[in-house]
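Work package 3, deliverable 3.1, input record:
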Amino acid sequence: MKLTGTVVIPLASPDDASTTARAAAPYLGTADKVVLTYVVEKGGGAPDKASLEQMEGYAEKVFDAAREELADAETEVETRVLYGTSISKTVFDLCDEVGASSVALVPRESNRLFKLLVGDRVRPFIEDNDIPVVVFPSDD
Amino acid sequence: MTDPDDELAKDLGLLSALTIGIGTMIGAGIFILPGVAAREAGPLVVVSFVIGGGIAMINAFAVAELGTAMPKAGGAYYWINRALGPLFGSIAGLGDWMGLAFASAFYCIGFGGYLSDLLEDVAVTIPAVGSVSLALPSIELATVSLPSITVPEVSILGVEALGFSLLGWSFTLGLTDVQVGALIAAVIFVGINYIGAKETGSIQTVIVLLLLGILTVFAVAGFLSFDYSLIEGDLAPEGAGAILPGTALVFVAFLGYAKIGTVAEEMKNPGRNLPLAVIGSVAIVTVIYAVLVGIMVGVVPWDELDRFTPVSQVAEIAFFGPLAAVGLGLVTFAALLATASSANASILSSARINFAMGRDKIVGSWLNEIHPRFATPYRSIAVTGAIIFLFITLGTVEALAQAASVLHLIVYALTNLALITFRQSNLPEYDPDFTVPLYPVTPILGAALSLGLIYFMEPQQIRLSIYFIIGALLWYAVYARRHTKDAGLLAEYVREESDELPDAAVSATEAVSPDEYRVMVPVSNPRTERDLVELGGAIAKAKDGKLVAVHVVTVPDQTPLHVAAESEAFEDGDHRLLESAREHAEETGVPVETHTVFSHRTLEQVFDSARKHEADLVVMGWGDEGRLSTGRAGTVTDELAQNLPCDFLVFDDRDRDASRVLFPTAGGVHSELGAEVARALRDTVGSEIRLLHVADDPDEGERFLEEWAAENGLDDAERVVVSGDVEEAIETEAEDASLLLIGAVGEGLLSRLVGGSLVYDVINDVDTSVIIAEKARNRSVLERIFGDD
């Protein structure tokens, strides 16, 4: 299977970025463009969990980790820092904006406690999607 | 960087910002302090609150101005560091951080008080076990008596800093039920911030509006039970002199408005919303405090108000009949909510301050790592949490309140001074949307009142603040000074004006400024100026440092220096020379500053200037300062030349470029300096470096040179090992080189140069340009901190 058109890849942390980029790389040969994105979760009127500037710096680290894995890919790679109260909705808005043909992600290992504490991050992607979402297996 | 148009990134509106300010402040003022403060000041405690609000308001103006000029994470710390430099930045950052930790501990104690009150009478019936009381336990571990050790009295500026009994009391190691409740609260609040439980703006707003609603009901009920006889007669039983100590105690209730500044970067339209939120929240809480505390001392006699849960106590009287239980429940609920929101906001903003300090490298980046799962600054929150736990177990409610206030007041005073610095420096990019009224009266008053209020604190807290400042200074000297870069506006100002300011002020500023590598180039000869500046610039660039061009104008002995400084005869060459030095330095792409000094003794003046401007390296022309002084060789003593103020490079320019460098070495500190120069030339102008080592045993020589080159980062240089006479070898090898770079042998190069007895005759026999490197003896850490005098 190969991905075509523009592929949006949401990333959550430097480790997640490495894992996801590594898993996605073999499938990206025929894609026109890959858009890596990090969503800074906003409170919508409450102060954020961390300083904006701090999160923007963090997003750069996340992108660097992914770029390292995608260094050999011939596809054009673009990065976008986004802000939103809902991560999945923000990512799908981006898909509309860039005319993406698919979203690709690797679910992170999680457990009930994590899901209870921070919410299930993957489920909204595969329940509320209006374009194809490709879930790669993680190699680690 | 944030895109200024990104509406989604900046989502704090006016109401959100106001509720952050009000939500943080109101927890303390109403629910915790009235009891403690009324016992201190009597019914006039209302005046204490109003004065506190006034002081807060004057400081709020400064926060509003600086916040609209620089809406950056970190707030007060950021502004102070930017204006006054990292020395004060360290005090402000650590002060704000610890102040918030003290305040958080204080809010947690407040929460713990109401929690233990609530649980006291609650028992749960569990089948098989029976009735279980939920009342929080007191934990008594041990009673400890410490021996008495008296520290001798030391009087500093008339303030007795020490001179108290250091140890020598006995206390019970253990926790009260209130402290147990406070620790539970701290675990919850720290935990919420650690995992970053999702908050939405509406929750914060709802909490604050709910609080205001409950307080209104409470105020009305209280007003109806108001008993005038309680405040008739003596309004100031503790004397009017107790009002200001009362203010000192309750000032902690106003530590919320500045927190709006720490989240300024997230605000929509900060130019309008920030001043409104900061000033508005102070105005609103001051009115609420005045009204509610006024009512409370009219319901319960001032000397009987509860130390931990005054509001519950008043509510028990104010709500009577069938309303009693409901009223008490509502008020307890409000108290828990209010103290929780205060603690939560404080923990959150302490992470912002840590981040801003990390950005300037005043703390390590370890502290500000983001959690890969929770996307929170988890280490910063955990460290702050640990400090809060410690404070809860050690402090009483009064001590925590005052400790928080003292540290915040220091920060507020510095904030006002930062504002004055920004205004006076006329920076074009300093363009606040809001400006303080009546400048400069307002910021001067703000600084004076903030420091003045500290005077009314308990001696223990004043001592604490002195120790804290000493601690912050040590932190700066030992850690921050080595890492941080930006010197701050004030230091820049002093440096720029250094020709007019007294030497002591300049040296002091240089001594406390961050360790920036400074290359000083004395220029006096138009022929050599360009080469010296380019060489100095190359090294400054390699070291990420700064170039200081100093024009030493030699004045005949009979002309007084101040006359020379004003005389046009000495002025003309000077301007052109420095201007062209500045241009050449800018071409190399390093920051530059220029100075002119008038002196009778050129070489001594170079040494003095090197000390005054804290140069790390002086790049000097050979025929220039050296030979000028030769005529007065008697004045250059060996002692002077052997105590180099910094590293020296002496450059004899013979119109040859630096493309092929020959660098003979036999090791030693001076050669290490030479290696730094070689690396800088290699990296900035692409010089080819050839290392030469003269040894009797070629194999051993080869091994030595290979190792030495690797240690000095020159492993890519060509290596030549020959045996025989050193000077002859240099001469032969120099034939196809354009520059000879050579380390001094032993100390005192300059005295020999000046005295005419050269280290190597070879220097006269080669036709390359020559650089001689001499390293200064290492200055100790103490000398670095306190200057060299």
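Chain B has a mean pLDDT of 80.
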